[in-house]
UniProtKB/TrEMBL annotation:
This is Chromate efflux transporter. It is a multi-pass membrane protein. The gene is chrA. The keyword Membrane applies. Belongs to the chromate ion transporter (CHR) (TC 2.A.51) family. Pfam families: Chromate_transp. The chain crosses the membrane at residues 83-106, 118-138, 150-181, 201-222, 298-319, 331-351, 357-376. It comes from Paenibacillus yanchengensis. PANTHER family: CHROMATE ION TRANSPORTER (EUROFUNG) (PTHR33567:SF3). Keywords: Cell membrane, Membrane, Transmembrane, Transmembrane helix. Signal peptide: none annotated.
Length: 397
């Protein structure tokens, strides 16, 4: 019996690794696009969680610093197979871009690959994927006029004030408005999010997060070891950033370029390479670490920048289900979820739409890819390959 349980558990881990690695190889377009890929894979295809649980998890990750899409992936892995499931999910989603950036980014510096036709095609793929995700979420999460209005408020506010603070402010304000509008609302919710980790373990993770945040700078000053200085810079950058990979770039540039760790040209060339690979933009740290200290530096930088996100999501997940089932919290989340829809639409326009749809032919190609995904029900990897080929062909027209 125990042997059967062990075999079943390892099969679960293998399935998580296969699915997350496929997403890691095909998820282009930044954090919002990643959530679209996750939504399509985990909610619609695999049915590992329902729509509401997915959006609640997204809302939690929006509150936490770090790469939200990676945290969502970790959370889904934890729900499926515990802490080891979260680790496997993270490795599968992150490792392809880490390997690509360590091996290829150094070879492709200065070649302007971010302007290549196939890269532009992959950006258009992101338009189709995110549009599909937003339509589905809006249908379920903004069913009445009040929540449609909240989504519109979030859209307008985050478009006009494009900072990470604005997203957090909108979520807080929408939660308060949701509580006021729906405090008499009663809705039965039998769904449960199961996180097979204890609250004691969660508190250890939170303590470790804050402990490292304060201890690493002290160790850096007390020693002259370069790897401690690197680990501190990457860990601190990953700990204090809201809003995804593009927001962390100025922090990383400030940490490493003025101090002489690498040149401005090398930094910009690496950013171009990072745009060419799938997965989270936080893996840009792997490129920076590899430039400074070889492949070992790339591995160290990757661990350091993602560790805060890992500790935070493991530290908050065990408390999340009981909070979301509380009647008062539930009506707050009704407002928050509507705001998430507006924030996603805002991010869909800027930067995804504005950096991808530059001409009528781009819009036409996006419409074709959207139809392939939504109406013809083709697998996402076919959409990605079609986007890359189509982007290359469009440069010849």
């Amino acid at each position: 019996m125990k042997q059967n349980q062990t075999n079943h558990y390892f099969k679960q881990l293998l399935e998580i690794l296969i699915v997350s690695t496929r997403l890691g190889l095909t998820s282009f377009g930044g954090p919002v696009a990643h959530l679209g890929y996750f939504h399509n894979e985990y909610v619609h295809r695999k049915k590992w969680m329902d729509e509401k649980s997915f959006v609640d998890l997204v809302a939690l990750c929006q509150f936490l610093p770090g790469p939200a899409s990676s945290q969502v992936g970790i959370g889904i892995g934890v729900m499926r197979a515990g802490v080891l499931g979260g680790i496997v999910s993270f490795i599968g989603f992150t490792l392809p871009s880490v390997i690509a950036l360590i091996i290829f980014a150094l070879l492709l510096q200065g070649l302007g690959i971010d302007q290549a036709g196939w890269i532009h095609g992959l950006k258009i793929v992101a338009v189709a994927v995110v549009a599909h995700a937003i339509i589905g979420m809006a249908r379920n999460l903004t069913p009445d006029l009040n929540r449609k209005t909240l989504a519109l408020f979030a859209l307008v506010f985050t478009l006009c004030w494009q900072t990470a603070v604005s997203q957090v402010a909108v979520i807080i304000i929408s939660g308060i408005i949701g509580f006021i509008l729906y405090k008499q609302h009663t809705e039965s919710d039998d769904s449960r999010i199961h996180f097979p980790i204890s609250r004691g373990f969660a508190l250890i993770c939170l303590s470790l997060f804050f402990g490292l945040l304060f201890l690493l700078p002290i160790l850096r000053e007390a020693t002259s070891l370069s790897w401690i200085a690197m680990f501190d810079s990457f860990y601190r950058s990953g700990s204090i950033v809201f809003g995804g990979g593009h927001v962390v770039l100025p922090l990383l540039e400030r940490e490493f370029v003025p101090t002489g760790w690498l040149s401005e040209e090398a930094f910009i060339a690496g950013y171009g390479a990072a745009q060419a690979v799938p997965g989270p933009l936080f893996t840009f740290a792997a490129y920076l670490g590899a430039v400074m200290e070889g492949w070992q530096g790339g591995v160290l930088a990757t661990i350091a920048i993602f560790l805060p996100a890992f500790l935070l999501i493991l530290g908050t997940l065990p408390f999340w289900d009981s909070l979301r089932r509380n009647p008062k919290i539930k009506v707050v989340l009704m407002g928050v979820n509507a705001a998430v829809v507006g924030i996603l639409i805002s991010a869909f326009y800027q930067p995804i739409w504005t950096s991808s749809i530059l001409a009528p032919i781009d819009f036409a190609f996006a419409a074709i890819l959207f139809s392939m995904l939504v109406y013809w029900k083709l697998p996402p990897w076919i959409i990605v390959v079609t986007g890359a080929i189509g982007g290359s062909l469009m440069t010849l027209i």
